[in-house]
Amino acid sequence: MALKPNLADNRTRSSIQIFIVAGLCCFFYILGAWQRSGFGKADNLAMEITKNTGGDCNIISSLNFETHHGGEITSVDSFETEKKVFKPCDPKYTDYTPCQDQRRAMTFPRDNMIYRERHCPPEEEKLHCLIPAPKGYVTPFPWPKSRDYVPYANAPYKSLTVEKAIQNWVQYEGNVFRFPGGGTQFPQGADKYIDQLASVIPIKSGTVRTLLDTGCGVASLGAYLWNRNVIAMSFAPRDSHEAQVQFALERGVPAVIGVLGTIKVPYPSRAFDMAHCSRCLIPWGANDGKYLMEVDRVLRPGGYWVLSGPPIHWKVNYKAWQRPKEELQEEQRQIEEAAKMLCWEKKYEKGEIAIWQKRMDGDSCHSKQDKSQVTFCKSSDPDDVWYQKMEACVTPYPDTSSSELKNFPERLYAVPPRVSSGSVRGVSAEKYQEDSNEWKKHVKAYKRINRLLDSGRYRNIMDMNAGLGGFAAALQSPKLWVMNVVPSIAERSTLGVIYERGLIGIYHDWCEAFSTYPRSYDMIHANGLFSLYNNKCNLEDILLEMDRILRPEGAVIIRDEVDVLIKVKKIIGGMRWDTKMMDHEDGPLVPEKILVAVKQYWVAGGNSTSTQ
């Protein structure tokens, strides 16, 4: 059965844009009905806009942009000199990932997956052009349909449909890929697999909210956990299997390109309620258990680790796996020894699934550890991980007990343990609450500007400078998820707080490319980011990276000081983005302003669709 992308379920791409026009009270006329970015007929657009707005473009009649928002800041244009125009990159760069470039990767050693780690291009090799979308690119299906269907044109790679055919990963049907929800270890479907895990792990109660899925494949586990209010941070290398992380993001599931190699994973300590490996091919027992020690670092006290597939149940399956039973037996012995050293308690083993639980506190652990066999990490900050070498040492338990953590969704606005214990310098419980309230106000203003913000139009959202996670918390909805990025140069390391709220995120330095494919995000938010990076690296590089990871017709909201935004707006002027600058929601006297933008639709060899 062939499905026609975005005709029935996604409406038409143009009608989506017409509805944006209504939602923005017509000041975003730049997204008008004449965009030629997808399927549909113009005569249907008038009906759609009339149905949604009653024929009145000013659907928020009480909102006056002149008095409430100060309107557009038209005087900014007078400061602009001749702008630099960025040309499209060669179509061969359609799926370019700068820091995981395949050709560059092959020049590095294969030992310990070094070649699959981040290796960013030097300054002289950076591209200064706009990455094109492939011909035929369309907006992904809305969630939850996107979980099961991806337009073929968006990621035209069929190898997984052949290589993983009997494992039910993905099937090619006409002009779409269909994802039945299977996997190497759950060919009968992810839901049945999750049911088996839930018989041991308290998934329903809200105790388990955040999960790290290592070697995630096409992220079907994360896709199906969403309905159970569990959000997974999935990662896999580029590219053991062609386009697996790209497929995950096209499905609307959080994922990044990543690997367990020689560098610590870019997540804070005690971040995840659960970690998972389903035949992820990671040698857990190797290197003195270093990889399990890294999982232990990011696993919250009381958290669970799930291993399904080799070497579990090796006595029965060694022939099917075509591996010597002695080798598998030794592999499982190493894992059991490492788990014992980490004080993990084995809770379950049945078939090919084994589950361990990390103990709640250090006291109960230390009485069971053989001190002569344990080396504790000496770093004073277990969250200092950006480009830090992974060590064969055990991260000590914190002084603050994670038992204070509420179940989700209560933990979203409860004071996180890191804040209540004073672990985050300069952030008291009162300041945390003030920050949460401030972001509720900001997001309320954003929703007045863009009425599609909570409609499901934007599924994959990124906050480039997330702070305490207030933006994501205020947006919280089953229709969307937010990748909260805490810059490695930020004044405070707040990513641990974000995870304690039941949200997900990652450390990153925006002087480099992000670990994702082009066109991964529907919307990008950047608060104070350009002030933070001003004079630290080229703002042009940051904006080009934003363009790379933003989908055609994706939205951008940049909140910053007006002098910085003037610089940013000048660069954007050559980037095929349509922009409007607006005053702060508290009025024109506030020096902080808001720059709202929409990326034009264009593909390799094609023209853009701005009506400006």
UniProtKB/TrEMBL annotation:
A Gene Ontology cellular-component term: trans-Golgi network
GO biological process, one term: methylation
InterPro entries xrefs: Put_SAM_MeTrfase, SAM-dependent_MTases_sf
Keyword Disulfide bond in record: no
Top EC category: transferase
Principal location listed in the UniProt entry: membrane
Residue spans crossing the bilayer: 15-34
Membrane topology: Single-pass type II membrane protein; Single-pass membrane protein
Gene3D superfamilies in the cross-refs: Vaccinia Virus protein VP39
Sorted UniProt keywords: Glycoprotein, Golgi apparatus, Membrane, Methyltransferase, Signal-anchor, Transferase, Transmembrane, Transmembrane helix
Pfam families hit by this protein: Methyltransf_29
Keyword flag Transferase: yes
E.C. numbers: 2.1.1.-
Gene Ontology MF term list: methyltransferase activity
Family to which the UniProt record says this protein belongs: Belongs to the methyltransferase superfamily.
Protein name as catalogued: Methyltransferase
Organism: Linum trigynum
